[in-house]
Amino acid sequence: MAVTVRLSRLGTSKAPYYRIVVADQRKKRDGRFIERLGTYDPRRTPEAIELDTARLEYWLGKGARPSETVQQIAKRHAARQVAPTS
Q1: What is the pLDDT of residues 50-67, one digit of tens each?
Q2: Beta bridge partners of 40
Q3: Local structure of 61: helix, strand or coil
Q4: Do the beta carbons of residue 5 and residue 64 sit within 8 Å?
Q5: For residue 46, what pLDDT is reported?
Q6: Which site among 44, 63, 75, 84 is 20 to 30 Å from 14 CA-CA?
Q7: Could you tell me which of 8, 17, 69 has the C-alpha nearest to residue 48?
């Protein structure tokens, strides 16, 4: 079974809201998933990212492949965690 970390779209028309999920690659974008790792809201300023990095590392260690978008979101989330808040 090929497992991927990707976005699942929620929200209304023209107001997207995403879940970051671990899912079987063969399932539909908004279909069944294995585990929810976090959320991503691109409409907020700054964009709201909630991500369980420990579980993300676990799944990547098990061979799950992240989508390009999830890779970018994870990098932005990590940069915010390290950046000083002064």
Answers
A1: 999 999 999 999 999 999
A2: 18, 49
A3: helix
A4: yes
A5: 86
A6: 75
A7: 17
